[in-house]
Amino acid sequence: MAGNPGARRRLRLGVLCGGPSAEHRISLLSSRHIVEGARDAGFEAVCIGVDMAGRWLLYGAADHLVAADDPRTVALAPGGRPVVAAPAAAGGQLRPLDGRGAAVALDVVFPVMHGPYGEDGKVQALLEAARIPYVGCGVTASALCMDKDHTKAVLRAAGLPVVEWVAIRRDETERAAPERLRDRLGAPPYFVKPANLGSSVGISRVDRLDAIGPALALAFAHDRKVLIERAVRGRELECALLGNERPEASGVAEIVVRGRHRFYSYEAKYLDEAGAALRLAADLDATVRERIRTLAVAAFRVLGCRGLARADFFLSDRGEIFLNELNTMPGFTRISMFPKLWEREGLTIGPLVARLVELALADRPAGEATEPAREPQAAVTP
Ligand SMILES: Nc1ncnc2c1ncn2[C@@H]1O[C@H](COP(=O)(O)OP(=O)(O)O)[C@@H](O)[C@H]1O
Ligand SMILES: [Mg+2]
Description:
This protein is of the alpha+beta class. The chain has ten helices and 18 strands. Bound molecules: adenosine-5'-diphosphate and magnesium ion (MG). The site of magnesium ion has 2 residues, from loops.
């Protein structure tokens, strides 16, 4: 196994979780699943919980959570030791903030956090500066994929299909004038969303041009930049990616929004247990499925992703396929789409974590690597 330096000692994986975000609890649930995977893979796991104030707290492997079985109340346990990540003579380490006690060297960090802070390049930059290898996309790809306007611009420039959109800043609301929107996007419905967020926070569906004002106000409450998009009537499909230069694409899954929800909103995602059904094997024509897998790999490469991502698509009632977004750190709970899709391909959580660690260690810049980089087999080439 790459990164396990012979029999000297087990690889030590730091699971960095929580974070000051709306998905703090989802991240904690994900961390538990990753610790299980790390154990299966034969790694030593330590957990670093990031609290809502952004403090890094070091725990042992299994003692970092309270109410670990309840998605509504799971929280970081008291008693974590405040630490900072810092470079050391070889690699990186966590140093106690109070200066007492030993530093802990880490071989790899798995930053399983979602949204701003953990998934947008900030934590990735911190880990780079501390010289600690980490799982997942680097700084640039993380930041790029967090900004829906920039993501779409890059995808479109590469000839990949995205839904027509307008991005506006606070001082440009004249660009959202009804006639201008109709010219650019056609008649409503539209989706209005903050450029840099996730979990459907701040997103509304607008059915009439005179209802755009409140939707813009809501989105601008969360961000300086807002997207207005043509709404696609159709299905929502997801494909998981794993690899570095030539990622492997999983099968294609479907999100079926149910009940009173008009789209995959925050409520449908997290609050209403019956809000959406995940279908791991979407019922699709083979050609559509292969096209989606090919587009997912192409988008991953164009955006400069590494390690993993989940590509989300719309399939319109007329059969058009659009890339919606790439999530560079998808959910990892036991019931999350990303690990479920790989489980279906025969990779349970242990081998999945092992592969991600291997990919993180294989991608170190020349001169840093201690073993030759390995590239997994590509199932799909764009
Ligand atoms: N252009 C669109 N057409 C149809 N539905 C959309 C569109 N944009 C967003 N949605 C709906 O809103 C949900 C959240 O939007 P998305 O862009 O994926 O933001 P987030 O990053 O918060 O997941 C989608 O899963 C989908 O249900
Ligand atoms: Mg989404």
